[in-house]
Amino acid sequence: MELSTVTDAFDRVAKRQKLSSSKYQEVVDQVGHEIEQAVAKIEAINDSLSAVDLKSILTELKLKLNAIGPLQQLEGLQKECNINLGRYPKLLEKSFNPDISKAYRNVDLDFHIVNQIVASHFFRQGLFDVGDCLIHEAEDPEVIAIRSHFLEMYQIREALKVKNLEPALNWITANREKLKQNGSTLELKLHRLQFAEIIRKGTKADALSYARTYLAPFASLHMNEFQKLVVCIIWVGKLDSCPHAELMAPTHWEEFTEEITQQFCSLVGQSYQSPLSVVIAAGVEGLPTLLKLANVMAAKRQEWRAMKQLPVPLELGKEFQFHSLFVCPVSRDQGSDENPPMQMPCLHVLCKQSIMKLSKSSSRTFKCPYCPAEVSAAQCRQLYF
């Protein structure tokens, strides 16, 4: 969704409001200064102050305040603010369609899956009370099975925030074989983090003892990194000068937290990202195209909800692409179970319907659209993605 216009308008409003606020304060300070000076004059004269002197001081104050014109200045500033604020809602109304109901169609949802997606999202955020409430009200006890996994993950993440590696180490130790099968180096990275803390706060003897006990077992497979870590022992107390100081960088804690979260979700059969967050983000990105399509189709008195395929491409970012897709280079149709991709003997690939059209329903051979090869429908083989 293109939001630059709305963002720029918001920035202008915010800038104007900030400028007006500083101007307000400036005007108030000017008025306050003149009043304070008048009060000081009155106090300096004390008992000898006559009615004439008092009147002259107040008259002078009035003239100065009139010269400043605080009311006029404040009204002018407020008027400029109101103009900018008045334009912004109109731009929002123009940029966003408040009625998005025409951009979706009714789908028979599996409410058990919906409950699981929403509850797991709350569990991922550490909102276990909210997730439990949802499960209780939905009367869907099966969803509770995923709670224990996310509770353990949440406890690990919370411990890492205060640089407590024990829960993470316990989980890695319990799942060491599975992690090895996945080619994970989490255990080494965990010990590297602990080693870095010792380098920063401990002694050379402590660091050397830890390296011998916990890092040495990884030396055969990770010799280069092991050697760099051992060299860091020499630089205890002067780590800024260490040639391998990047291994001690605090950012490794954040990277480790994300990696262990990803590995944890993988082992328990859950996606790394919250499905609810992904669905909402994809919907927000695709919504403008769908709203525009709905308006165009409505103007033509056609109904797009009944279509099996959208008549326009719905471009989403790569972060929303989870499965390989095949689009026929001849018909531009996306592959499906009814119209699967078919590989010809020349290794070029077309969809089944295109091959049927070119071969006149398998009644004759045809020339490949991309090379001189002569092909028959019987020679084509279905591909599976």
What does this structure look like?
By secondary structure, this protein is mainly alpha-helical. Helix content is 59%, strand content 3%. The strands form 2 sheets. The chain has a 3-stranded antiparallel β-sheet. It has a two-stranded antiparallel ribbon with strand order 3-4. The protein starts with a helix and ends with a strand. The relative contact order is 0.06.
Element order, helices and strands?
HHHHHHHHHHHHHEEHEEE
Shape: flat
**Proportion of beta-strand residues:** under 5%
Structural class: mainly alpha
Major sheet size, sense and barrel closure? 3 strands, antiparallel
Helix content: 55-70%
- Rg, Cα atoms, Å: 35 Å
What integer is the average pLDDT? 86
Q: State the end-to-end CA separation.
A: 30 Å
Q: Low-confidence segments, ≥5 residues, pLDDT <50?
A: none
What's the tally of helices? Answer: 14
Number of strands: 5
Query: What is the assembly state of the chains in this entry?
Result: single chain
Order of strands, widest sheet: 2-1-5
